[in-house]
Amino acid sequence: MAIDSMVRSAARNAPRNGSRNALRNGQRGIQSIEVGGALLKALAHAGRALPLKELAAEAGMAAAKAHPYLVSFSKIGLIAQDAASGRYGLGPLAMQLGLISLQQLDPVALATECIESLAAGTGHTVAIAVWGSRGATIVRVARPASAVYVSMRHGTVLSLRGTASGLLFAAYLPRAQVQSALRDDAASAMAGRAGKVDARIDPSLAARLEEVRREGLARVADLLLPGVSALALPVFDARGTIVLALTAIGPSAVFDSRSEGAVASALREAAQGLSTQLGFRAPS
Fold first, then answer.
1. Which residue, 104, 136, 158, sits at the end of a domain?
2. Taking the CA of residue 160 as centre, how many other CA atoms within 13 Å lie in the half-sphere pointing to its CB?
3. Do 96 and 129 fall within a single domain?
4. Would you list the DSSP string of 11-24?
5. CA 115, CA 118: separation in Å to the nearest integer?
6. pLDDT tens-digit profile of 202-218?
7. In this structure, what CATH number is given to the domain that contains residue 233?
8. Are residues 209 and 72 part of one domain?
9. Which helix (H) or strand (E) holds 62?
10. In which band, very low, low, confident or very high, does the pLDDT at 77 lie, cut at 50, 70 and 90?
11. Strand locations in the chain, DSSP E?
């Protein structure tokens, strides 16, 4: 199902004027492949097996014209026809290509391409955080052009309780991982002090994590640093596992921390786009 989502996304984003683009670039293509490719795009966009007439109509061609292409695609495994219903669906080669494509994608590299525009668009610092050996860790940072912004450094390990990125990972990671990180978090906070280290997911923290999952984002305001606010949104892979957090941080006085505000909307659009590229399909 995740592969179907990835293929449908690629189909939606694929240019329909590929021949003209190729000619403008001085490249010569094979027109028959491009014509047949319309059938693959239509099938991927539909996300389900289709009968010949419906598939041909979706691709904008007559059934008689579409049929020879489908025969050839079936021979190489790009398309498979159900013997009972006669419907056409994606074949084993299409699935293998989808899997290989997903394996080759680097989530951090993909996200790095968009954080500069996010920083410019929101006017705030935007960072990528991943889950490292010591917890949520900043690995990429983009700063806005504005004179006033909050700085973040590469390699910074973030508090699970006190930062938006930390709360986001705590909400979506397995409980055992979270509790282990909470122990490290608490030990670091209690270093040099006498007293007991509390690494529990207490009712207050559990309620916050449930809120994060319900809203699909984590936010903090004036928590660890007075005058500083942040929002973090998750990026998921094909298995539905959180792979990174897109986090915006800025001065509380000018930071829009609303869940439907401009900053959250920009991060959400980017996070959903990245998740789709990685093969994630949101539950319906």
1. 104
2. 29
3. no
4. HHHS-TTHHHHHHH
5. 5
6. 888 899 999 999 999 99
7. 3.30.450.40
8. no
9. none
10. confident
11. 79-81, 88-90, 125-132, 135-142, 218-221, 228-236, 242-251
